[in-house]
Amino acid sequence: MKVTIKKWTGVATWKWVANDDNCGICRMAFDGCCPDCKLPGDDCPLVWGQCSHCFHMHCIVKWLQSQPVNQQCPMCRQEWKFNNK
Amino acid sequence: MCVVCHLFTNLKWFSQNLDIVDMTSSNHLDIKYQWDPSRDGDSAILTPTASVRIKRDLLEIFKDPPPGIYVVGDESDIRYVHAIIVGVMDTPYEGGFFYFLLKCPADYPILPPKVKFMTTDAGRVRFNPNLYKNGKVCLSILGTWTGPAWSPAQQISTVLLSIQSLMNEKPYYNEPGYDRERTPGDAKRYNEYLRHETLRVAVCGMLENECHLSIPPQLVEMMESTFLQFFDLYTETCRDNLRSDGEFYIDPFGGNTGCNFEYTKILERLETIRSNLQKKQNIPVSLPFTDGEGSDEKDV
After folding, report:
1. For A38, nearest residue in chain B (alpha carbons)
2. Residue B187, Cα to own-chain centre: how many angstroms?
3. What would the pLDDT profile of B199-249 be if each residue is shown by its tens digit?
4. What is the pLDDT of residue B50?
5. What is residue B250's DSSP assignment?
6. First CA to last CA across chain A, in angstroms?
7. What is the CATH number of the domain that holds A33?
8. CB distance A74–B48 less than 8 Å?
9. In this complex, is the C-beta atom of A57 within 8 Å of any C-beta atom belonging to chain B?
10. Domains in chain B, please, with CATH?
11. Do A75 and B107 touch (CB under 8 A)?
Protein backbone atom coordinates (compact mmCIF):
# COMPACT_ATOMS: atom_id res chain seq x y z
CA MET A 1 0.00 0.00 0.00
CA LYS A 2 1.25 3.43 -0.88
CA VAL A 3 0.44 6.44 1.24
CA THR A 4 0.79 9.89 -0.10
CA ILE A 5 1.03 12.64 2.47
CA LYS A 6 -0.80 15.60 1.10
CA LYS A 7 -0.48 17.93 4.06
CA TRP A 8 0.92 17.88 7.56
CA THR A 9 0.82 20.20 10.54
CA GLY A 10 3.55 20.20 13.17
CA VAL A 11 2.62 20.70 16.82
CA ALA A 12 5.09 21.54 19.56
CA THR A 13 4.72 22.19 23.26
CA TRP A 14 6.95 24.13 25.56
CA LYS A 15 7.45 24.12 29.28
CA TRP A 16 9.47 26.13 31.73
CA VAL A 17 11.99 23.96 33.51
CA ALA A 18 11.56 25.07 37.11
CA ASN A 19 11.94 23.24 40.41
CA ASP A 20 8.37 24.11 41.40
CA ASP A 21 4.94 24.20 39.76
CA ASN A 22 3.70 27.53 41.04
CA CYS A 23 5.12 30.97 41.55
CA GLY A 24 5.47 31.49 45.31
CA ILE A 25 4.27 35.09 45.03
CA CYS A 26 1.16 35.00 42.82
CA ARG A 27 0.67 31.23 43.16
CA MET A 28 -0.18 30.86 39.49
CA ALA A 29 1.31 27.98 37.53
CA PHE A 30 4.68 28.67 35.95
CA ASP A 31 3.35 27.33 32.67
CA GLY A 32 0.78 30.10 32.82
CA CYS A 33 1.65 33.73 33.32
CA CYS A 34 1.46 36.16 36.19
CA PRO A 35 -2.02 37.64 36.71
CA ASP A 36 -0.93 40.95 35.18
CA CYS A 37 -0.15 39.32 31.82
CA LYS A 38 -2.40 37.82 29.17
CA LEU A 39 -0.13 35.25 27.51
CA PRO A 40 2.53 32.96 28.93
CA GLY A 41 5.93 32.72 27.33
CA ASP A 42 8.71 35.17 26.66
CA ASP A 43 6.55 38.15 27.61
CA CYS A 44 6.18 36.85 31.14
CA PRO A 45 9.48 35.13 31.82
CA LEU A 46 10.68 33.26 34.87
CA VAL A 47 13.76 34.29 36.80
CA TRP A 48 15.92 32.40 39.24
CA GLY A 49 17.70 33.56 42.35
CA GLN A 50 21.07 32.28 43.49
CA CYS A 51 19.17 30.52 46.28
CA SER A 52 17.59 28.47 43.42
CA HIS A 53 14.06 29.78 44.02
CA CYS A 54 12.15 30.78 40.95
CA PHE A 55 9.39 33.38 40.33
CA HIS A 56 7.64 35.20 37.53
CA MET A 57 9.93 38.11 36.75
CA HIS A 58 7.04 40.57 37.13
CA CYS A 59 6.22 39.22 40.58
CA ILE A 60 9.73 39.23 42.05
CA VAL A 61 10.54 42.66 40.61
CA LYS A 62 7.45 44.13 42.29
CA TRP A 63 8.55 42.61 45.58
CA LEU A 64 12.14 43.82 45.26
CA GLN A 65 10.99 47.32 44.36
CA SER A 66 8.94 47.42 47.56
CA GLN A 67 12.05 46.55 49.59
CA PRO A 68 14.55 49.40 49.30
CA VAL A 69 16.94 47.72 51.72
CA ASN A 70 17.47 44.12 52.69
CA GLN A 71 16.15 42.47 49.56
CA GLN A 72 15.34 38.88 50.47
CA CYS A 73 13.99 35.84 48.68
CA PRO A 74 10.29 35.51 49.67
CA MET A 75 10.72 31.77 50.16
CA CYS A 76 13.95 31.39 52.15
CA ARG A 77 14.73 34.97 53.29
CA GLN A 78 18.28 34.73 51.93
CA GLU A 79 19.63 37.84 50.30
CA TRP A 80 18.17 37.95 46.80
CA LYS A 81 20.61 37.82 43.90
CA PHE A 82 19.58 37.06 40.34
CA ASN A 83 21.15 33.92 39.00
CA ASN A 84 22.30 34.82 35.49
CA LYS A 85 23.11 31.38 34.27
CA MET B 1 19.48 39.39 78.91
CA CYS B 2 17.73 41.77 81.26
CA VAL B 3 18.77 44.76 79.21
CA VAL B 4 17.25 43.24 76.11
CA CYS B 5 13.96 42.64 77.89
CA HIS B 6 13.76 46.19 79.11
CA LEU B 7 14.53 47.48 75.69
CA PHE B 8 11.59 45.54 74.31
CA THR B 9 9.30 46.72 77.07
CA ASN B 10 10.29 50.29 76.33
CA LEU B 11 9.80 49.80 72.64
CA LYS B 12 6.31 48.52 73.27
CA TRP B 13 5.59 51.35 75.69
CA PHE B 14 6.83 53.75 73.08
CA SER B 15 4.71 52.28 70.30
CA GLN B 16 1.61 52.38 72.50
CA ASN B 17 2.24 55.96 73.53
CA LEU B 18 3.17 57.01 70.04
CA ASP B 19 -0.53 56.72 69.27
CA ILE B 20 -1.23 59.56 71.67
CA VAL B 21 1.54 61.66 70.18
CA ASP B 22 0.14 61.09 66.72
CA MET B 23 -3.19 62.57 67.74
CA THR B 24 -1.63 66.01 67.58
CA SER B 25 -0.31 65.70 64.05
CA SER B 26 -2.51 66.80 61.17
CA ASN B 27 -2.81 63.45 59.45
CA HIS B 28 -3.10 61.44 62.64
CA LEU B 29 -5.95 59.39 61.21
CA ASP B 30 -3.71 57.82 58.58
CA ILE B 31 -0.85 57.03 60.90
CA LYS B 32 -2.80 56.01 63.96
CA TYR B 33 -5.06 53.60 62.15
CA GLN B 34 -2.68 52.29 59.53
CA TRP B 35 -3.01 48.81 61.01
CA ASP B 36 -6.81 49.04 61.25
CA PRO B 37 -8.74 47.52 58.32
CA SER B 38 -11.93 49.32 59.29
CA ARG B 39 -10.43 52.81 59.52
CA ASP B 40 -7.36 52.97 57.28
CA GLY B 41 -9.29 54.87 54.60
CA ASP B 42 -7.57 52.84 51.88
CA SER B 43 -9.94 52.38 48.97
CA ALA B 44 -7.41 51.65 46.21
CA ILE B 45 -8.48 49.12 43.60
CA LEU B 46 -6.85 45.70 43.78
CA THR B 47 -4.22 44.75 41.23
CA PRO B 48 -5.08 41.64 39.16
CA THR B 49 -2.46 39.73 41.16
CA ALA B 50 -4.07 40.75 44.44
CA SER B 51 -7.59 39.64 43.56
CA VAL B 52 -6.36 36.32 42.15
CA ARG B 53 -4.18 35.73 45.20
CA ILE B 54 -7.00 36.47 47.69
CA LYS B 55 -9.21 33.89 45.95
CA ARG B 56 -6.35 31.37 45.92
CA ASP B 57 -5.66 31.95 49.61
CA LEU B 58 -9.31 31.33 50.46
CA LEU B 59 -9.57 28.32 48.20
CA GLU B 60 -6.54 26.75 49.84
CA ILE B 61 -8.12 27.19 53.27
CA PHE B 62 -11.42 25.69 52.04
CA LYS B 63 -9.63 22.72 50.48
CA ASP B 64 -7.47 21.96 53.48
CA PRO B 65 -8.92 23.80 56.49
CA PRO B 66 -6.49 24.28 59.37
CA PRO B 67 -8.10 22.93 62.57
CA GLY B 68 -10.02 25.56 64.50
CA ILE B 69 -9.80 28.20 61.78
CA TYR B 70 -12.92 29.26 59.87
CA VAL B 71 -12.83 31.76 57.04
CA VAL B 72 -15.42 33.44 54.82
CA GLY B 73 -14.80 35.99 52.08
CA ASP B 74 -16.85 39.16 52.25
CA GLU B 75 -19.86 39.04 49.93
CA SER B 76 -19.71 42.62 48.76
CA ASP B 77 -15.99 43.46 48.89
CA ILE B 78 -13.36 40.91 47.94
CA ARG B 79 -10.69 42.78 49.91
CA TYR B 80 -12.26 41.77 53.21
CA VAL B 81 -12.01 38.34 54.80
CA HIS B 82 -13.85 37.31 57.97
CA ALA B 83 -12.22 34.71 60.19
CA ILE B 84 -13.03 33.00 63.45
CA ILE B 85 -10.40 31.17 65.44
CA VAL B 86 -11.91 28.69 67.89
CA GLY B 87 -9.82 28.61 71.06
CA VAL B 88 -7.63 25.49 71.18
CA MET B 89 -8.30 22.83 73.84
CA ASP B 90 -6.19 23.00 77.02
CA THR B 91 -5.60 26.71 76.59
CA PRO B 92 -7.52 29.38 78.55
CA TYR B 93 -9.20 30.20 75.24
CA GLU B 94 -10.69 26.74 74.75
CA GLY B 95 -14.04 26.72 72.97
CA GLY B 96 -14.15 30.51 72.59
CA PHE B 97 -14.98 32.24 69.30
CA PHE B 98 -12.44 34.88 68.35
CA TYR B 99 -13.46 36.96 65.39
CA PHE B 100 -10.93 38.72 63.14
CA LEU B 101 -11.49 41.06 60.22
CA LEU B 102 -8.80 41.04 57.53
CA LYS B 103 -8.36 43.48 54.68
CA CYS B 104 -5.96 42.88 51.85
CA PRO B 105 -4.20 45.97 50.50
CA ALA B 106 -4.34 46.86 46.79
CA ASP B 107 -0.94 45.33 46.08
CA TYR B 108 -1.38 42.20 48.19
CA PRO B 109 0.73 39.99 48.61
CA ILE B 110 3.55 42.53 48.34
CA LEU B 111 2.13 44.04 51.54
CA PRO B 112 0.54 41.96 54.32
CA PRO B 113 -3.19 42.05 55.09
CA LYS B 114 -4.41 44.36 57.84
CA VAL B 115 -6.02 42.55 60.73
CA LYS B 116 -8.40 43.69 63.44
CA PHE B 117 -9.39 41.59 66.41
CA MET B 118 -13.12 42.08 66.96
CA THR B 119 -13.91 39.99 70.04
CA THR B 120 -12.96 42.61 72.62
CA ASP B 121 -16.29 43.26 74.37
CA ALA B 122 -16.44 46.61 72.55
CA GLY B 123 -12.86 47.54 73.38
CA ARG B 124 -12.91 46.46 77.02
CA VAL B 125 -10.98 43.18 77.06
CA ARG B 126 -7.38 42.55 76.07
CA PHE B 127 -7.40 38.83 75.41
CA ASN B 128 -3.64 38.43 75.04
CA PRO B 129 -0.53 40.54 75.45
CA ASN B 130 -0.48 40.69 71.64
CA LEU B 131 -4.23 41.25 71.10
CA TYR B 132 -5.01 44.77 72.23
CA LYS B 133 -8.38 46.04 73.45
CA ASN B 134 -8.63 48.35 70.44
CA GLY B 135 -8.28 45.35 68.11
CA LYS B 136 -4.66 45.81 67.15
CA VAL B 137 -2.88 42.51 66.57
CA CYS B 138 0.83 42.64 67.42
CA LEU B 139 2.54 40.28 65.04
CA SER B 140 5.83 40.74 63.23
CA ILE B 141 4.55 39.45 59.88
CA LEU B 142 1.83 42.13 60.02
CA GLY B 143 4.44 44.81 60.58
CA THR B 144 3.02 45.63 64.01
CA TRP B 145 5.82 44.01 65.97
CA THR B 146 9.56 43.39 65.78
CA GLY B 147 10.84 40.15 64.28
CA PRO B 148 10.62 38.36 60.94
CA ALA B 149 8.67 40.58 58.58
CA TRP B 150 6.04 39.74 55.96
CA SER B 151 7.06 37.94 52.80
CA PRO B 152 4.81 37.52 49.75
CA ALA B 153 5.23 33.76 50.06
CA GLN B 154 2.98 33.95 53.13
CA GLN B 155 -0.78 33.96 52.91
CA ILE B 156 -4.01 34.41 54.83
CA SER B 157 -3.73 30.98 56.46
CA THR B 158 -0.21 31.69 57.74
CA VAL B 159 -1.43 34.92 59.35
CA LEU B 160 -4.29 33.11 61.09
CA LEU B 161 -2.05 30.23 62.18
CA SER B 162 0.40 32.71 63.68
CA ILE B 163 -2.42 34.37 65.62
CA GLN B 164 -3.64 30.96 66.77
CA SER B 165 -0.15 30.22 68.10
CA LEU B 166 -0.23 33.42 70.18
CA MET B 167 -3.32 32.04 71.91
CA ASN B 168 -1.39 29.31 73.68
CA GLU B 169 -1.39 27.59 77.11
CA LYS B 170 0.48 30.33 78.95
CA PRO B 171 -0.04 33.61 77.10
CA TYR B 172 1.34 35.55 80.08
CA TYR B 173 4.82 34.83 78.81
CA ASN B 174 4.09 36.36 75.39
CA GLU B 175 4.68 39.79 76.89
CA PRO B 176 8.29 40.92 76.51
CA GLY B 177 9.90 41.33 79.89
CA TYR B 178 7.53 38.78 81.42
CA ASP B 179 9.56 35.67 80.64
CA ARG B 180 9.49 35.21 84.41
CA GLU B 181 6.46 35.77 86.60
CA ARG B 182 6.50 39.05 88.53
CA THR B 183 4.82 37.27 91.46
CA PRO B 184 4.59 33.47 91.67
CA GLY B 185 1.25 32.32 90.29
CA ASP B 186 0.77 35.31 87.96
CA ALA B 187 0.65 33.19 84.81
CA LYS B 188 -1.96 30.90 86.36
CA ARG B 189 -4.07 33.82 87.62
CA TYR B 190 -3.88 35.42 84.18
CA ASN B 191 -5.14 32.15 82.68
CA GLU B 192 -8.06 32.07 85.12
CA TYR B 193 -8.99 35.59 84.09
CA LEU B 194 -8.76 34.69 80.39
CA ARG B 195 -10.83 31.54 80.90
CA HIS B 196 -13.58 33.60 82.52
CA GLU B 197 -13.49 36.27 79.83
CA THR B 198 -13.47 33.60 77.11
CA LEU B 199 -16.76 32.21 78.43
CA ARG B 200 -18.27 35.63 79.11
CA VAL B 201 -17.18 37.48 75.95
CA ALA B 202 -15.99 34.93 73.38
CA VAL B 203 -18.75 32.37 74.00
CA CYS B 204 -21.86 34.07 75.48
CA GLY B 205 -21.07 37.49 74.03
CA MET B 206 -20.41 36.10 70.55
CA LEU B 207 -23.49 33.85 70.47
CA GLU B 208 -25.71 36.66 71.74
CA ASN B 209 -23.80 39.06 69.49
CA GLU B 210 -24.08 41.65 72.20
CA CYS B 211 -21.58 43.92 70.47
CA HIS B 212 -23.55 43.88 67.19
CA LEU B 213 -20.69 42.68 65.03
CA SER B 214 -21.59 41.92 61.44
CA ILE B 215 -20.50 38.30 61.43
CA PRO B 216 -21.28 36.45 58.17
CA PRO B 217 -24.15 33.91 58.53
CA GLN B 218 -21.88 30.96 57.65
CA LEU B 219 -19.70 31.75 60.65
CA VAL B 220 -22.72 32.25 62.89
CA GLU B 221 -23.95 28.79 61.89
CA MET B 222 -20.55 27.32 62.68
CA MET B 223 -20.57 29.00 66.11
CA GLU B 224 -24.05 27.71 66.88
CA SER B 225 -23.28 24.10 66.06
CA THR B 226 -19.90 24.24 67.82
CA PHE B 227 -21.58 25.82 70.85
CA LEU B 228 -23.95 22.87 71.18
CA GLN B 229 -21.06 20.43 70.86
CA PHE B 230 -19.02 22.23 73.52
CA PHE B 231 -21.94 23.05 75.81
CA ASP B 232 -21.00 20.48 78.48
CA LEU B 233 -17.42 21.67 78.47
CA TYR B 234 -18.53 25.27 79.03
CA THR B 235 -20.84 24.42 81.91
CA GLU B 236 -18.28 22.13 83.51
CA THR B 237 -15.70 24.94 83.51
CA CYS B 238 -18.29 27.25 85.10
CA ARG B 239 -19.16 24.75 87.84
CA ASP B 240 -15.49 24.07 88.58
CA ASN B 241 -14.91 27.77 89.12
CA LEU B 242 -18.09 28.86 90.88
CA ARG B 243 -16.26 29.54 94.10
CA SER B 244 -14.20 32.32 92.54
CA ASP B 245 -17.40 34.32 91.95
CA GLY B 246 -17.17 37.80 93.39
CA GLU B 247 -13.36 37.94 93.18
CA PHE B 248 -11.88 40.86 91.34
CA TYR B 249 -8.96 40.58 88.93
CA ILE B 250 -6.89 43.32 87.33
CA ASP B 251 -5.37 42.53 83.94
CA PRO B 252 -1.60 43.10 84.26
CA PHE B 253 -1.45 44.16 80.60
CA GLY B 254 -4.82 45.87 80.16
CA GLY B 255 -4.32 49.18 81.93
CA ASN B 256 -6.78 49.53 84.78
CA THR B 257 -9.29 47.07 83.40
CA GLY B 258 -10.16 43.72 84.82
CA CYS B 259 -13.23 41.78 85.78
CA ASN B 260 -15.43 40.52 88.56
CA PHE B 261 -15.74 36.78 88.30
CA GLU B 262 -19.39 35.86 87.77
CA TYR B 263 -19.61 32.23 86.70
CA THR B 264 -23.15 31.89 88.09
CA LYS B 265 -24.37 34.51 85.65
CA ILE B 266 -22.43 32.94 82.75
CA LEU B 267 -24.03 29.59 83.54
CA GLU B 268 -27.49 31.15 83.24
CA ARG B 269 -26.57 32.81 79.94
CA LEU B 270 -25.25 29.51 78.55
CA GLU B 271 -28.51 27.75 79.42
CA THR B 272 -30.58 30.50 77.77
CA ILE B 273 -28.48 30.41 74.61
CA ARG B 274 -28.81 26.64 74.40
CA SER B 275 -32.56 26.60 74.84
CA ASN B 276 -32.94 29.35 72.22
CA LEU B 277 -30.78 27.41 69.76
CA GLN B 278 -32.73 24.21 70.38
CA LYS B 279 -36.00 26.02 69.83
CA LYS B 280 -34.64 27.46 66.61
CA GLN B 281 -33.56 24.03 65.39
CA ASN B 282 -36.84 22.34 66.24
CA ILE B 283 -38.97 24.71 64.23
CA PRO B 284 -39.94 22.67 61.14
CA VAL B 285 -39.37 25.28 58.43
CA SER B 286 -37.94 24.76 54.97
CA LEU B 287 -35.01 27.12 55.29
CA PRO B 288 -32.13 26.47 52.90
CA PHE B 289 -29.97 25.71 55.93
CA THR B 290 -32.08 22.91 57.38
CA ASP B 291 -30.05 20.22 55.61
CA GLY B 292 -26.83 21.37 57.21
CA GLU B 293 -28.41 21.52 60.63
CA GLY B 294 -29.82 18.04 60.24
CA SER B 295 -26.41 16.55 59.55
CA ASP B 296 -24.94 18.48 62.48
CA GLU B 297 -27.46 16.86 64.79
CA LYS B 298 -26.40 13.44 63.63
CA ASP B 299 -22.78 14.29 64.43
CA VAL B 300 -23.78 15.19 67.97
Report:
1. B48
2. 20
3. 999 999 999 998 889 999 999 999 999 999 999 999 999 999 999 999 888
4. 94
5. E
6. 52
7. 3.30.40.10
8. no
9. no
10. 33-299 (3.10.110.10)
11. no
